[in-house]
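note to self: dont lose this again. the chain is below, predicted strucutre after it. 181 aa total, dont forget to put it in the shared folder this time
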Amino acid sequence: MAQLFKVHPDNPQLRLLKQAVSLLSQGGVLAVPTDSSYALVCHLDDKTAVDHMRRIRQVDDKHHLTLLCKDLSEVSKYAKFDNRQYRLMKSNTPGAYTFILEATKEVPRRVSHPKRKSIGLRVPNHVVLQLLLNLQDAPLLATTLIPPGEVEPLNDPEIIRERFEHQLEGVIDAGACALEA
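---
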């Protein structure tokens, strides 16, 4: 059964987020708020958790996943980019933008695009997720929480917990996210 971490959206309780980080380090998949919708996240290096996340979404290994990074210095460890791309990222991060860049060797092959060797990277602008990334001290692999057969992402943490309580290890409830059109 998924553990529910009910946190304040602007001043999240550190104790609860540390518990969530513990679940991630044990191979857990969590539903977390982002600046655009809720997403499923897991540890980048945990193949079992990545496979579990794909099964929850019912997507194959060709489905693109996003690497959530705490800042641009962390992005530079996982992607190659030139000065022009850096300026574009710097002016749009943190935020709800995912940048598709050439992956470095630090990115496991199973999560980069198989033909182009690229990866989607994002520096989120959500207080709760930023704190989680800082506590984790490593990027998280993510995919938008769109239930199989649906087109819109889920945005209500209570509904997420009800629908996925036996598939997730935890749900971080910071209220509804600002869905983008």
